[in-house]
Amino acid sequence: MNMEFIKRLANNLFGKRKTYDAKELGIFYSKVWNCWKNESYYWFTSMKFSVYREETFLCINGDSDAPFQPQIFCLREVLNNWEEIRSQISRIIPKHVRYIKNKEVFIYWKECFYPESVDVFGAGTNGVKITFSTYDLNHSFSFVWRDGHVRDFVLENEEKENIPYPEAYTYYLFDYLYYIGEIWEKSNSRMCGSILLFWYYTFIFVIPVYFLLLHIQEIGRADNFPLYYIGFNFLFPFLFSWVRYRKKRKSALMKHYRYPKKIKIISAIFFLLVPIVICGLEIWIYGKQGWINIVY
Q1: Inside any domain, residue 168
Q2: Both 240 and 147 in a single domain?
Q3: Where are its TM segments located (predicted)?
């Protein structure tokens, strides 16, 4: 298993929230576990441009103490050159929308699109990736701002056409839960897709099945049964996430599900309570059927 994945998981679970005030860029936050520090951390924040209705998500790299200063500098350069960026986009878009069906929404992009995310690459020398989306998230385009120029401009349909044999993925409920966890991570870095899958898997499957297996004499009386059962099922969701959600599939998944784009408190409580309620219902049914003994 990739050590970076394990460290990220450990920091999400046990790390302490750290903040860094970048003044006009806002307050960045990350999760750092001092017992097992990583070489690099993601630092997040969101800011609102005055001309847009929605907030822009900012992501940069840093160490355990603060974001890397060259990346902070790159973000400030983007803000200082924002009007130039918009001007270059206005000149580039007409060349890319000639042969697409929904060209009108791109022609009036200043009214229809907002900067959804800004990501700094590496030390900042590779550029800053900026993604614009419509407010309904049905259309998007992205580009890299590097050396004072908009480069690698990509419309959503161009990205699909450039793939000669696109892989057709089938999506299931657990894929949506993983997506929710990844979106949730933007507002609470203690959560991620694999942790949310672990939460649902534990309450919907592991706990109810554990009570059932305890009533099978050959299994329930085995000395090492709890240790093996809990150990395997603790690792399974994380191994599953690591194997299934590789780069291509994860990218396709995040594009397939476009809603919600932000997890609010009420939604968070709902997603956390659902598996607990299902778990209680399962155990109640097992008791009613006489499969397990429940003391009321």
Answers
A1: no
A2: no
A3: 195-213, 225-245, 265-286
Please check whether residues 94 and 121 belong to one and the same domain: yes
- What pLDDT sits at residue 281? 94
Q: Could you tell me if 180 and 155 lie in one domain?
A: no
Predicted pLDDT at 15: 76
One domain for residues 49 and 189: no
195 and 60 co-located in one domain: no
* Least confident stretch, 26-30, 65-69, 262-266: 262-266
Residue 43 has pLDDT above 80, yes or no: yes
Q: Report residue 236 as tokens.
A: 């399974």
* Coil, strand or helix at 231: helix
Mean pLDDT, all residues of the chain: 83
Helices 193-201 + 225-244 axis angle, to 10 = 140
Measuring CA to CA, how many Å separate 200 from each of 78, 185, 194, 274?
Answer: 40, 17, 10, 8
Question: Which residue range(s) make up the domain with 47?
Answer: 3-161
How far is the C-alpha of 106 from the C-alpha of 102, rounded, in Å? Answer: 7
Cα–Cα distance, 91 to 95 (Å, whole number): 8
Instruction: Inform me whether the pLDDT recorded for 220 exceeds 70.
Output: no
Residue 38 sits in the same domain as residue 180 = no
Residues 212 and 96 in one domain: no
The continuous run of DSSP H or E covering 140 comes out as: strand 140-146
CA–CA distance from 168 to each of 108, 110, 182 (Å)?
Answer: 32, 33, 21
Question: Considering the entire predicted model, what is its pTM?
Answer: 0.59
Whether 244 has a pLDDT exceeding 80, the answer reads yes
- Which of 58-67, 89-98, 111-120, 152-161 has the lowest average pLDDT? 152-161
Higher local confidence (pLDDT), 261 or 16: 16
Find the helix packing angle between 225-244 and 207-214, rounded to 10°.
Answer: 150
